[in-house]
Design goal:
The complex is a heterodimer of chains A (218) and B (296). Chain A is mainly α. Chain A is 64% helix and 2% strand. Chain A has helices spanning 15-39, 53-78, 86-93, 95-99, 114-136, 148-178, 182-188, 193-199, 201-207; strands at residues 10-11, 190-191. Chain A has a two-stranded antiparallel ribbon with strand order 1-2. The two termini of chain A are 29 Å apart. Chain B is α+β, with helices and mostly antiparallel strands and 296 residues long. Chain B has 9 helices and 11 strands. In chain B, the strands form 4 sheets. In chain B, strands 9-2-11-10 form a 4-stranded mixed beta sheet. Classes of the chains: A mainly alpha (218), B alpha+beta (296). At the A-B interface, helix 1, helix 2, helix 6 and helix 8 of A face helix 3, helix 7, helix 8 and helix 9 of B.
Chain lengths: 218, 296
């Protein structure tokens, strides 16, 4: 799909970024499903999606490794825009206004809001933890380089990081559905000016070259 | 169930009770390894490989009578040789038959994510059912005795079965049958404890004041027990664990973490759904579009 915006719309995500995002989504879902199959017996049936238990055990580390490397590309691309600023912490402090949809009470939001930046932070830390601990518990190739104590700690770390990342992504998916127009933005690449005005006003001013006289572009 | 004559009381990665109406009223079984009677002949190792059709690779000498060097998917039991210089300055040659301890509270079974890959029979034997094993190696992290080995050939976990196939038909394990000195005996756990107590009393009368039975309570007791002349220092016997128990890390990972994490994930999804029901979607209004028009 081309990046040419419709006459009345603003480009939010380039074709490269959208591709990158959806590659991440696919890899993440596969990694999460195969990982959850090995986490709780109630979810062991997920292993049927991957061809059974041994296939799930075999594939999961490779899927996870692919997910980590694909995420690295996304993280690099989004790094600068996701640095926490004081206004973002204020935004997070007012989470009640956020969930009530009272955006008028919140600080003006730039390209990403405090919640999105927090998601980014959780994903960066969580994926790094999964990547490192994943090698330690990769029995076929790497576990024999580590003492059993380290492998035990890595197993727990892997589960905790995966839990944090999965919960963060569940919230991410719901938030994208909840804020109408967000799914369109990441599928088609564009948003309407009203969407940008309502949800990311500082970014709106920036891309329409109308700097906010009080705070300037965020 | 591969062996109908053995009742399963615990099954890995299974949250519902296993069939267990037939209790083990005749008691559980146990193997007793009397280290003080062992001469290190390795007949038990040979019997194990013969009965179980195992053939380990011929390794190389690393300066010890111990051969092979370590347990493997092909060596389920191993005489570990340790040289100990006691406080009197005498050399003691301590030989311990290593292998699965068949814990009453098995860490391998707790850690295993594959339903039915590890089972515990009513008679106390902990058995790997390799056809259900997925090869993840979690049992290795769960075991406090460093016993399970993942085969490089088929990526399945293997260890001593306590000859569950022989025991099921009323035979003693192959290693017991082969032992020429009576260092290995097999029977009900109760009988083995009584026999061990006699052996400890005998050893004490011969000057081994610290002689003791090794039946570690940290794992609920074991169905393989030792009689040790230095019962106060099990680590002398090639690093036998002093107070083995399932690691707290594994307990957290395989205990509270599982239901709590699952509940939290389910709660997150439900919270999203009910947020939508109560608050509705966050939509851009014509007023927002108009404001944007004016603002730009």
């Amino acid at each position: 799909m081309s990046d040419n915006p419709r006459r009345d719309s603003l480009v939010r995500y380039s074709a490269e970024l959208r591709t990158n995002h959806w590659l991440n989504a696919i890899a993440f879902v596969l990694a999460a499903l195969s990982g959850l199959a090995l986490f709780h017996p109630a979810l062991f049936w997920f292993s049927n999606l991957f061809g059974g238990g041994p296939w799930t055990r075999t594939l999961h580390p490779f899927i996870g490794l692919a997910a980590a490397l694909i995420f690295l590309m996304l993280a690099v691309a989004l790094w600068d825009d996701n640095r926490m600023k004081p206004a973002d912490w204020q935004w997070l402090k007012q989470w009640r206004d956020v969930v009530d949809g009272r955006e008028d009470r919140l600080p003006e939001v730039g390209r990403y809001n405090g919640g999105q930046k927090l998601l980014f932070l959780v994903l960066v830390v969580g994926m790094a933890g999964l990547f490192l601990s994943g090698f330690v518990i990769w029995r076929a190739y790497f576990s024999h380089y580590f003492s059993v104590r380290v492998v035990r700690l890595a197993s727990l770390t892997h589960a905790l990081c995966a839990f944090a990342v999965i919960v963060a992504i569940l919230i991410h998916i719901y938030a994208a559905f909840w804020v109408k127009g967000s799914v369109d933005a990441i599928v088609r690449g564009t948003v309407t000016p009203g969407w940008a005005w309502k949800h990311h006003r500082a970014w709106f001013r920036q891309v329409t070259h109308a700097a906010n006289p009080r705070t300037g572009p965020n | 169930m591969p062996l109908q004559s053995l009742d399963i009381i615990r099954r890995s990665a299974t949250t519902t009770p296993s069939p267990q109406v037939r209790g083990s009223y005749t008691g559980t079984v146990a193997k007793l390894i009397d280290v003080s009677k062992c001469i290190g002949c390795k007949a038990c190792q040979v019997a194990c490989m013969e009965w179980n059709d195992l053939r380990d690779e011929v390794g190389s000498n690393f300066g010890s009578y111990q051969n092979p060097a370590d347990l493997s998917d092909q060596s389920w039991t191993l005489m570990r040789f340790a040289e100990y210089e006691n406080p009197k300055g005498d050399l003691e040659w301590l030989i311990r038959k290593d292998g699965c301890m068949h814990c009453a509270d098995p860490g391998c079974l707790k850690a295993c994510p594959a339903p039915g890959a590890i089972v515990q029979y009513a008679n106390g034997i902990v058995d790997f059912q390799e056809e259900n094993c997925i090869g993840c190696g979690y049992c290795v992290t769960g075991c406090p005795f460093n016993i399970p080995r993942i085969s490089k050939r088929d990526h399945k976990a293997y260890k001593c079965t306590l000859c569950s196939d022989r025991v099921a038909v009323g035979l003693e394990p192959a290693c017991i049958k082969a032992c020429p000195t009576g260092a290995l005996v097999f029977g009900t756990k109760e009988d083995m404890k009584a026999h061990a107590a006699e052996r400890v009393a005998d050893l004490k009368s011969r000057g081994f004041d610290q002689a003791d039975v090794y039946d570690p309570p940290g794992v609920g007791g074991t169905h393989v027990m030792y009689v040790l002349h230095h019962g106060d220092q099990p680590q002398l016997y090639a690093g036998l664990a002093m107070d083995p128990r399932i690691s707290p890390t594994v307990k957290l990972w395989k205990g509270a973490a599982k239901p709590l994490a699952l509940a939290a994930m389910a709660f997150t999804v439900l919270a999203g759904f009910f947020h939508f029901v109560r608050v509705g979607r966050n939509e851009v209004t014509p007023a927002d579009e108009a404001a944007a028009e004016k603002g730009s």
